[in-house]
Amino acid sequence: FLEEPSYQTISPQDAPLTLRASVDSGGGVIQTVRFFRNGELIGSASSEPYELNIVPGNQGPRMFEARVESLDGAVAMSPPAKVFVAGPYEDGVNLNGPETLTPGQTWKADSDAVAAGMQVTQATPLAEGETIALYPKPNVSMQSLITSQYLWTQSSSVPQLSVSYPLPDGHYEVFVHIVEAVAPHSRDVTVFLEGENVAEGIGDLALGEWVNYGPYRTEVTDGVLDLAFERTTKGVPKVASFSVYQAAGPVDPA
Q1: Is the preceding omega at residue 136 within 30 degrees of 0, hence cis?
Q2: How far is 103 from 18, CA to CA, in rounded Å?
Q3: N or C: which end of the chain has fewer CB within 10 A?
Q4: 84-123, pLDDT tens digit by residue?
């Protein structure tokens, strides 16, 4: 199977990406491991470590797979790893968590983000998901990004968990991690960016499931990115981390 990239990875367009396969020969002799992007062969490795270094290319979703071929003709295909290729990485925060490194990206610790001017309101720190099986199974870095979170502090007068984070003015794509570690399908969440509703009903997940939602396009015009999370129809909204990538401005109509 593919050890790297982990499922639901966001890869900046200009950052190198390593494809690495973990292979069990099952008593046979491995001839080669071939790597595929969206079904197209992009390279191979005939000896350990079975890996391939690439630059992801154009922005958009990608599916990577590895095919193992043995000398006796046996063939096995890995489950696909979903990667979204985004624009250049701008920033990211591991909410209520430590600094975390992923390929091409450094996610600020919550404490460092607060020192840089981040404000979180109507939120209760929460750590969960460390004692249950999460799926897709996260690697060590991803585990850090999804197990420390903020939960909305319930209030009839303030219906949103809000995050304000200093960013230069510009156009961006934003992703948010949500994990369910309490009860299956117990919540759904509406997401606002710069006051605009960009998603409804996300976070309605099975127990142990996690998703990196996005990309959500927005424009910052006042030096601060404003995110808010609100109940759609049920449960208590929460968020584990967010990341921000540079995006081109809207295309002028012809």
Answers
A1: yes
A2: 8
A3: C
A4: 999 999 999 999 999 999 877 999 999 999 999 999 999 9
For residue 5, say if its preceding peptide bond is cis, omega within 30 degrees of 0: yes
Q: What is the DSSP string of 196-231?
A: EEEEEEET---TTBEEEEEEEEEEESSSEEEEEEEE
The answer, yes or no, to whether the previous bond of 168 is cis (omega within 30 of 0) is: no
Q: Which two structure tokens, joined as six digits, stand for 187? A: 């919540």
CA-CA-CA-CA dihedral for 171, 146, 81, 132, to nearest 10: -160
Which CATH number is correct for 87-246, 3.90.76.10, 1.50.40.10, 3.20.20.30, 2.60.120.430? Answer: 2.60.120.430
Exposed, middle or buried by CB within 10 Å (0-12, 13-18, 19+), for 168? exposed
Other residues' Cβ atoms within 10 Å of the Cβ of residue 36? 19
Tokens of 39: 């079904």
CA 63 to CA 55: how far, in whole Å?
A: 14
Parallel, antiparallel or unpaired: strands 60-70 and 75-77: antiparallel
> Does the global pTM surpass 0.85?
yes
